[in-house]
Amino acid sequence: MPTIGVLALQGDFEAHEKAFQQAGARTVQVRAAADLDSIDALVIPGGESTTMLKLIHAESLMEPLRQFGLSKPIFGTCAGAILLASQVSQPEQDSLGLIDISIQRNAYGRQLQSHVAQLDLDGKPLEAVFIRAPIIRRTGGSVRVLARHKGDPVLVEQGPHLAATFHPELTAGRGVQILFLEKVRTCAKN
Amino acid sequence: MYLDDQFRVKVGLAEMLKGGVIMDVTNAGQALIAEKAGASAVMALERVPADIRKEGGVARMAPISKIREIMQTVSIPVMAKARIGHFMEARVLEALEVDYIDESEVLTPADEEHHIAKRDFKVPFVCGARNLGEALRRIAEGAAMIRTKGEAGSGNIVEAVRHIRTIVKEMKQLTVLGPEELVAESKKHQAPLELIQYVAKHGKLPVPNFSAGGIATPADASLVMQLGAEAVFVGSGIFKSDDPEARARAIVKAATYYKDPAKLLEASEELGIGMHGLDIGKLPESELLQTRGW
User: Fold this and answer.
1) pLDDT for B191-250, tens place per residue?
2) How many secondary structure helices (H) and strands (E) does chain A include?
3) Shortest distance, CA B124 to any CA of chain A (angstroms)
């Protein structure tokens, strides 16, 4: 059983833990660089990316997270996807740059534009909750788009990493978690 | 439960604010300080509770120009307060597209009998509560987030502690009762049976449960989170202290590392004297804010 670390600085990290436990993984909360040593993969949850970024800098976690991402899978949702991107706009901010995408924060607008949508993931229906969500405006050549919403990529992967602009931890289906766990297993074999 | 899509996205934003600090601000300058310190959201209001308490008069929704200026300045969610029962202040805030409305006892109530029918709105609401019944009545009306009331503007954590302990204890008690006992509990708490049953089954509220009213130090934030609060609201505690920036940063850190005394020590190290606090026992009943609403 793989151990999934969930970055627990701020946001809906408990919802992610519950979702991955339901998908058959063990989970631990990550708040310091030393916590990264004992995990097979990391989840960066939804929350406020500016808040998480402050806490990442305050704890000098930027470099350890980047190093972790060079050998192990990271899955980011919403704020997590923003932190994984190579370029962030509205406003511009620092990020890990592990997935070659340009992402625009709060791109649908404010909370009144938050919504639930039905997506298609590999021919199967997938319910997606978008909360003050970002939009991926550009994907690099090595990025694969797994799902789209209104034409924009909303679930993408690059190498071992996965990013969603919506919140698969807030819906009942566990398809996205299972997809990530498969990537974790593949990465462990290599 | 009313788990339609609209309610789910309302609760969804509350989920994203967990483990964070929502700070009261009265202008764009304060909002920027809050955002830079790591606030997960800001609450726009015309005066912080300590000033409302001191100056008296009718406290209303903040001026629109101030709220708009705050919304244009920060990228984190912006909440704003409306008076209890004042559904037109709420409609104006909704049209302004604030991210959350706090139907708040800190402002002068507009209606002494009715709270806002919050399910009719597309914008989410947070409401204060002192006990489980009050929390569930607000959720029944459509609140997507609960915060314990504490005593706003007092700088005294004792009421926030009382309220979070009360709610947590009342929830625990429901989890051991049988179905016929839950019907009696519904009557006792004056709350819908459906919500009483939900709490009995899950041991928690169907929406996030945050804490407010009297948090002035990093240790205060950590205390209420240890007692079961999932995030904190800090009002006067930051901008009524000698060191708003450092204190805001320290409270953010305390909310993340609330279980770690060494981190709390580190967070508190650079702080000076906090806001001047009030002895709640010496406040006349008429000056209590927590008794507004029912």
Assistant:
1) 999 999 999 999 999 999 999 999 999 999 999 999 999 999 998 899 988 899 999 999
2) 5, 12
3) 8
The pTM of the full predicted model, rounded to 2 decimals, is 0.96
- DSSP letter string, chain B: ----HHHHHHHHHHHHTTTSEEEEESSHHHHHHHHHHT-SEEEE-SS-HHHHHHH-S---SPPHHHHHHHHHH-SS-EEEEEETT-HHHHHHHHHHT-SEEEEETTSPPS-SS----GGG-SS-EEEEESSHHHHHHHHHHT-SEEEE---TTS--THHHHHHHHHHHHHHHHHHT--HHHHHHHHHHHTS-HHHHHHHHHHSS-SS-EEE-SS--SHHHHHHHHHTT-SSEEESHHHHTSS-HHHHHHHHHHHHHTTT-HHHHHHHHTT----PPP--GGGS-GGG-STTS--
Cα B100 to Cα B122: distance, rounded to the nearest angstrom? 10
In whole angstroms, what separates CA B286 from the centre of its chain? 21
pLDDT of residue B1: 57
Cα separation, A64 vs A35, whole angstroms: 10
Per the structure, the count of domains in chain A is 1
| Angle B55-B60-B65 from CA coordinates, rounded to 5° | 105
Give me the pLDDT at residue A190, please. 80
Asked if the interface predicted TM-score (ipTM) of this complex is over 0.90, the answer is yes
Report CA-CA distances (Å) from A184 to A4, A36, A42, A70: 9, 15, 10, 13
B19–A47 CB contact, under 8 Å: yes
All residues of chain A having their beta carbon less than 8 Å from the beta carbon of residue B20 are: 10-11, 47-48, 51
- Strand pairing category for A3-7 and B100-104: unpaired
CATH number of residue A10's parent domain = 3.40.50.880
User: Which one is catalytic: A16, A78, A149, A161?
Assistant: A78
B84: amino acid identity, one letter: I
Domain that holds residue A144: 3-189
Q: Does A105 touch chain B (CB under 8 A)?
A: yes
Rounded to 5 degrees, φ, ψ at B234 are -120, 125
Q: How many Cβ atoms sit within 10 Å of the Cβ of residue B113?
A: 8
What single string gives the DSSP state of each residue in A68-105? Answer: HHHHS-EEEETHHHHHHEEEEETTT------EEEEEET
